[in-house]
Amino acid sequence: MHIPGDQNVYSQPSRHPDPLPAEGDRRPHASSASPATHARPTFKGWKDRTFSSLSIANKIILGYGISLGIAVLGTTTGLLVGDYYEAKARHSQQVAHKQAQLLSQLQVTVLQLRPEREFLPSIWEESRFRSARTESFERLNDVENLLTEVRASADLQTMSSMQGFLTGFETEIDAYRSDLEAIVGGVDPDTIDATVASQVERQITGLVDSPTYLRLFRFSIELTEFVEQAEEESLRANLALDRAGRLETQIILGSMALSIAIAGLLSIYISRTITRPIKQVTAVAKEVTEQGDFSLRAPVTTQDEVGVLSVALNDLIQRIADHTRELRETQTHLIQSEKMSSLGQMVAGVAHEINNPVNFIYGNLVHTRDYTENLLRLIHLFRDYYPTLDEPLKHEIEAVDLEFIEQDLPKLLDSMKIGADRIRQIVLSLRNFSRLDEAEMKAVDLHEGLDSTLLLLSNRLKLGIHIAKSYGDLPLVECYPAQINQVFMNIVSNAIDSLLDCGKNVEKTVTITTNVRSTNAIVQIHDNGIGIPEMLLGKLFDPFFTTKPIGRGTGLGLAISYQIIHKHHGEIKVDSEPGVGTTFSIIIPIKEIGFKK
Amino acid sequence: MSALPNTVSRRFILSGFAGFGLAIALHACGQPERPNASAEASNNNDAVSPLKIGLNVGNVPWEYENDQGDLVGFEVDLVTLVAERLGRPTEFVDMPFTELFPAVLSGRVDLAMSSITITEERMETVDFAQPYYDSDQSLTVLAEGAISSLEDMRGKVVAVDSDSTGDVWVQENMEGYGFSEIIRYEGLTAAMMDLKAGQYDGYISDIPALLYYAKDHPEIAVVERIPTGEQYSMMFAKGNPLRDEINALITELKEAGQMAEIHTRWFGRAPDANTSTVQAADIPTLR
Ligand SMILES: Nc1ncnc2c1ncn2[C@@H]1O[C@H](COP(=O)(O)OP(=O)(O)OP(=O)(O)O)[C@@H](O)[C@H]1O
Ligand SMILES: [Mg+2]
């Protein structure tokens, strides 16, 4: 499955790392040709994972839900924030208003402390004096209560400046109270006589004139300052109230605008998240049908309906790719077996045809030698019995150089024997190579197969190519010998091709190394030819892949070799460096059980 | 290309949220703060706001209007120098002497000066800077009258400036000197007019003012110095930090000899070396 966190997934149709994959198919690869993608845990990855797992319907619902939520949230926040500031402003307005009221009331009450009016008219009447006195002190109590109230209501800001003032004020009130007390407190209304009355009268007048009373008066007038401050405060609170209302409107309008913007963006985003994958899937489908590139895959970025569609399409592509590959394999196989069977039949026929005449020659050579020896011995005998020869005979003997013939003839026969031997060997190799009839597994010596391959290729090797053998200790290997020989043949021919194409000024060498590693026999065929560019390494084993001109290469050699080795449960690997050389490694299990036919 | 819209839209939304939150936050801290700030600016002695001085104009030679109608006087000169050093303009508020006390307490004025004597009683409710003038009380009478000393005042009507230290002294010495009655005035001018008109017999008040007044008014005379050992200073609301600031400036003015200069300007002679006009003094505190 694709990892949504990976950017590549979005940007282009993914290329399947393996062109024609199949279950259990371990195709050979150059080590560099395996791109790997890893998921990085990012926020985007998380978001995409979460979002992409939703169905299209849910995505739409989610999008509109979010924008609606923001609108509701914004409006609620606006109302709450507005209410909060409004309540705050209202509260400070109330406090300020109450304070102004209290202060005014305090001022009025203090200004009502008019001892001359309170007492002078009533001084002569016992009951009126009594009630006047009570009223006056009650008024003083009122003043003090109001003062306490003002002090309590003063908020923190005005508190400090007011505190000192109120303390001073209180001192004045106390002074006034004690002065008043001194004058009227001790008077017994019942025993007021003219002297007492006039004394009180004088004292009250004096009190009104006294600095104590004057100070009290000044302080109460000064209260105006605080009344004004409180009124200003109330005004400011009013302004704050207005601002709170505006803030509320602003937040609500702002959040509305924001939610509209988000809704807009979300709809764009959602439509993209829906349409983009569809477009990508469509593009992939089109490309696959037009170009037949089965390595393409539709990106599965979501788990919604489009995701399902992508998966289905990918499945379809995979199946077509599989079918195509199978078809090609079959085709390759057919061509191969046809090629091999006709070649094999021809080789077998030729070998057979040559075998008989060669056997005539080879078989008669023994007799030829006997006969020649007999004849020579006969000539010697003649010479012994007829030492003097007639002139014509003598002349003839000299002319044919009988002495030389006598010496050379056995050598000549020897070399004929060697030549005939070689022909017999070649015929044997041909028959060995073309043992197509031998459809049975056999335990064979791979070295024998390699040697006969080299023998068959000796013609091409004569063109200045050196063979270096480094054979290890190989046990017999269970295999189809003809097919394995064919693999050797293909690979060594490629090596020769590569060496012949190469203009290098070094000794052109094919090095064949064999050894055993655990349960496998390993054959390495190395050439110091032109090498293979890295980008082609992945295609070498593809059927019909060739870089050779038409008529020289079919591009089947390695494909067939691959299939054969694969059938032997072995492996074939290539290692190459352009300009330096190429090594093909063939790994065959020494004893394989359960071969498939 | 295809990955771009994602990132862009997300960033946009996030910044949108951030802006939204910021707006709320700004409103949240900005809104209630503003009234505070303005209130503080108007209350506090901000660098540019004028220094408001409460004084009782007519109190020669401390603060009075000269013939040109300009406010002049010892204390006017002093506070002008102080305000200069503070880098603030001055604003003078004329008021009766008794009003100075509630006015500094309410903050209507930053400080009050009107040859105010430092007393224990006053220090209960207000603060003073260090003194800058040593003074006594005095008896002032008609030059042509029969009274030439306090002893002559027995059975006579005495007048004072209401709530002044003279008022306090008279109340305390009423019995001893046998004054028949106290008449209280607010302000020197009215008191002097009544003295000349024979409304009362003797006026008891701070000696420098009366000596200064008598210079230009030969019909009255200061006949006796009443030693009370008073000292004048500037008055502030309790706890006002401006007091310490200005106190330091007064020390500077004394040390620079500028205070003595003012004294010479208004009294025609240099102050005595051991007086509070010359010597820097401690801030008066309640005993
Ligand atoms: N040893 C090698 N050095 C360089 N290139 C090689 C070598 N072996 C194989 N190749 C490359 O691999 C290609 C495929 O080889 P393959 O044997 O499958 O086909 P071919 O040789 O082109 O044709 P044929 O079917 O006749 O063998 C070659 O065309 C050649 O480009
Ligand atoms: Mg080949």
What keywords describe this structure?
heterodimer; A: 597 residues; alpha+beta; Heat Shock Protein 90; 4 domains; five-stranded mixed β-sheet; two-stranded antiparallel sheet; 16 helices; 8% strand; B: 287 residues; alpha/beta; D-Maltodextrin-Binding Protein, domain 2; 2 domains; two-stranded antiparallel ribbon; 9 helices; disordered N terminus; binds adenosine-5'-triphosphate; binds magnesium ion
Helix content of chain A: 55-70%
Radius of gyration of chain B: 27 Å
- Main beta sheet of chain A, described? 5 strands, mixed
Q: How far apart are the first and last residues' alpha carbons of chain A, in Å?
A: 35 Å
pLDDT averaged over residues of chain A: 82
Distance from N terminus to C terminus of chain B (CA atoms, Å) equals 86 Å
Tell me what portion of residues of chain A adopts beta-strand conformation: 5-15%
Q: What ligands does this structure carry?
A: adenosine-5'-triphosphate, magnesium ion
Shape of chain A: rod-shaped
Provide a compact summary of the structure:
The complex is a heterodimer of chains A (597) and B (287). With 597 residues, chain A is α+β, with helices and mostly antiparallel strands.
Task: Provide structural commentary.
Chain A is an alpha+beta fold and 597 residues long. Chain A has 4 domains: 1-25 and 440-597, Histidine kinase-like ATPase, C-terminal domain (Heat Shock Protein 90, 2-Layer Sandwich); 26-54 and 266-323, no CATH class; 61-256; 324-438, no CATH class. Chain A contains 16 helices and 9 strands. Chain A has a 5-stranded mixed beta sheet with strand order 4-6-7-9-8, covered by helices on one side. In chain A, strands 1-2 form a two-stranded antiparallel sheet. Chain B is 42% helix and 23% strand. In chain B, helix 2 crosses helix 8. Classes of the chains: A alpha+beta (597), B alpha/beta (287). At the A-B interface, helix 2, helix 3, helix 6 and helix 8 of A face helix 1 and helix 3 of B. The structure holds adenosine-5'-triphosphate (ATP) and magnesium ion. Adenosine-5'-triphosphate (ATP) binds next to helix 14 and helix 16 of chain A.
